[in-house]
Specification:
Number of strands: 9
Low-confidence stretches: none
Strand content: 25-35%
Structural class: alpha+beta
Order of helices and strands: EEHHEHEEEHEEE
Radius of gyration: 16 Å
Length: 130
């Protein structure tokens, strides 16, 4: 109800999206961010499944620097663990936003005793908001 495909094959906001209250808008943006992070990981990193780190932290024994941590983790087809900080929004992220997301992803050092070699800060936003 919030999105449609325009005539050029782009995803665009509907008028219903514009009418959402800020909390609802935030939730749509959150899910878009997570969805596009998953699609990117699957297609380009051969990592078809992503997990919420907080849900599985007791089972996976992650090594984390500080309190803040990435949203998602995924294991590649080669067995490597990757960290993902996922953001969704209505506006283009600033350089500070991008640096903060990358830093948050880099706080995951290892899963068990296996180092995480890739840390991704992912953003989904609408181009017409640039």
């Amino acid at each position: 109800m919030a999105l449609y495909e325009d005539g050029d094959g782009n995803i665009a906001k509907t008028s219903a999206f514009a009418a959402l209250d800020p909390t609802e808008n935030g939730m749509v943006s959150y899910f878009l961010g997570m969805t596009f992070t998953k699609l990117f990981a699957s297609r380009y990193l051969h990592t078809p499944w992503l997990l919420h780190l907080d849900v599985f932290k007791d089972t996976l024994n992650p090594s984390i620097l500080g309190r803040s941590r990435p949203d998602l983790i995924g294991q590649s087809a080669a067995g490597e663990w990757f960290a993902f900080e996922s953001k969704g929004g209505s506006a283009r992220p600033s350089a500070t936003d991008r640096a903060n997301a990358k830093a948050q992803a880099q706080r995951l050092v290892a899963i068990g005793a296996v180092a995480t070699p890739l840390h991704v800060g992912s953003f989904a936003f609408f181009r017409n908001s640039i």
